[in-house]
Amino acid sequence: MKPKVAFICVHNSCRSQMAEAIGKLLASDIFESYSAGTELKDSINQDAVRIIKDLYGINMNKTQKSKLLKDLPEIDIVVKMGCNVVCPFLPAKHTEDWGLEDPTGKSDEEFIKTAKNIEEKVKDLARKIKNNKIKL
């Protein structure tokens, strides 16, 4: 069975949503991707939606929505996006913090940089899971 990975942050509107989309696209053979936060947003960050659509051809408005931690199934791996305030807590067998800056309100370049950063980290996570570098 594939491990379930949750990308979490407070609002579940930008970085965690980008990570869920990129995870589904690039690593669905290795793990299942979910995202959630401690507060619901009415909609996903539309700059993130646009950039993910441009870079990866995924329309997050159609495939994803803001979710709360309690909406998730039981999770094996938690990835915190990087929270300067207080990161949500979710029990899991493995947790890591990617420490990503929130690009909200910044330029497209920042969103693209964040997406590419997430892409690298998703690929790295998939490699670690595949090579049993993460104890589950």
TrEMBL record:
<dbReference type="Pfam" id="PF01451">
    <property type="entry name" value="LMWPc"/>
</dbReference>
<protein>
    <submittedName>
        <fullName>Arsenate reductase ArsC</fullName>
    </submittedName>
</protein>
<keyword id="KW-0059">Arsenical resistance</keyword>
<dbReference type="InterPro" id="IPR023485">
    <property type="entry name" value="Ptyr_pPase"/>
</dbReference>
<dbReference type="GO" id="GO:0046685">
    <property type="term" value="P:response to arsenic-containing substance"/>
</dbReference>
<feature type="domain" description="Phosphotyrosine protein phosphatase I">
    <location>
        <begin position="3"/>
        <end position="128"/>
    </location>
</feature>
<dbReference type="InterPro" id="IPR036196">
    <property type="entry name" value="Ptyr_pPase_sf"/>
</dbReference>
